[in-house]
Amino acid sequence: MTGQTAKIASLCECGSAAVRQVNQFIDNGELWWDTEFSCDGCGTYLCEDSGRGTAPDDVREALLAVHGPARLRLVHPVPSLLPALKVFREVSAVSLSQAMGCRRAVLVS
Predict the structure, then answer these.
(1) pLDDT-based confidence at 102, cuts 50/70/90?
(2) Are residues 87 and 52 in the same domain?
(3) Residues 81 and 55 both lie in one domain
(4) Residue 28 and residue 60 share a domain
(5) Which residue, 17, 68, 71, 81, shows the most beta carbons closer than 10 Å to its own?
(6) How many other CB atoms sit within 10 Å of the CB of residue 59?
(7) Are residues 64 and 98 in the same domain?
(8) Which long-range contacts (CB under 8 A, 24 or more apart) does 87-95 make?
(9) Tens digit of pLDDT for each residue in 17-60?
(10) What is the residue range of 101's domain?
(11) Contact status, residue 45 vs residue 32, Cβ threshold 8 Å
(12) How confident is the model at residue 99 (pLDDT cuts 50, 70, 90)?
């Protein structure tokens, strides 16, 4: 499993400082995300939310703030970019024309 994590300072209902952890990861070839909450003060630990596919904006923003943007580069020549564009569309929630525009921008740079 490969992924990234960001920890965000938070406040628990008990009044203690707590941590909200957001994660995005690849598990068995699929993109997943989740959010966890923990408080050492009262011992609360819970998985707040999780899902498959594109993470919600707050999760993405936290990960970008910690890790910055990433660029996907295909290592080997491929006979068709369609499978890569399909995955990019699924995880980025963009149209085919937007995905193609990103592809052209990467090929030019």
Answers:
(1) low
(2) no
(3) no
(4) yes
(5) 81
(6) 19
(7) no
(8) 90/31, 90/53, 90/54, 91/31, 91/53, 91/54, 92/54, 93/54
(9) 999 999 998 888 788 999 999 999 999 999 999 999 888 999 99
(10) 71-109
(11) no
(12) low
CA distance 36 to 106: 34
Beta-strand ranges (E) seen in the chain are 2-11, 17-27, 30-38, 45-52
3-state DSSP call for residue 88? helix
CA distances from 60 to 6, 64, 71 (A): 10, 6, 15
Residue with tokens 């994660």: 23
**Do both 59 and 7 map to the same domain?**
yes
What is the C-alpha to C-alpha distance for residues 51 and 58, in angstroms, rounded to an integer? 14
Query: Please, what is the Cα angle at 61 between 36 and 56, to 5 degrees?
Result: 60
Amino acid in the structure at residue 103? R
97 φ, ψ (degrees, to nearest 5):
-65, -35
Angle, helices 82-92 vs 96-108, to 10°: value is 110
